[in-house]
Amino acid sequence: MNFIKKINRNKEEYSNANEIANNQRNKNNLSYRKNDNLKILYLKNSKKIITKVKIANSFKKRLIGLMFKKTTKYPLLFEIPQKINIKEKSSIHSFFMRFEIRLVFIDRKNIIYEIADLKPWRYYVPKKPAKYIIEFDKIEFDNFDLKIGDEIEIK
């Protein structure tokens, strides 16, 4: 009889521990979402709003990018750290990607200097270092009015 009581008590403790862990996971996910800010991408000269963009401003967010996602609600803007000033550090991979992306490279003067397409499981190095890189779903990119030479603003 004592053995059965012990098993039941262990089941309760295990169940409580799982509930606490699940609650903690949910809290962490909520706080992550709150910090997952959006900014607005403008054409500087016309002040025309292009789109909202998600910001990838940490190493982890830049590393993960759009990996494993089936679609994206917003383009992803990578803020490249200023101390990185070689073009290879502005490179982009599409490992574990499920869709083709269009990359927009923006220099220190906030001018688009290169636009490239990247299929899943590829690697791309731009012509020069970038201040920002924006990953668009290639299919959705045609909805945005962006071209080489455009000056952009992010607020």
TrEMBL record:
Superkingdom of the organism of origin: Archaea
Signal peptide span: none
Gene3D superfamilies: Protein of unknown function DUF192
Full protein name: DUF192 domain-containing protein
